[in-house]
Amino acid sequence: MNSDNIQPEALYMISSGVYIISTGHEGKFNGQIANTLMQLTGIPQICIATALHKENFTTELLRESGQFSVSVLDETVPMPFIGNFGFKCGREVDKFATCEFEVHDNCLPIVTQHTLATLCAKVIQTYPVHSHILFIGEVISAQILKKGVPLTYKMYHEIKKGKSPKHAPTFILNEA
Question: What is the mean pLDDT of residues 77-82?
Answer without folding.
Answer: 93
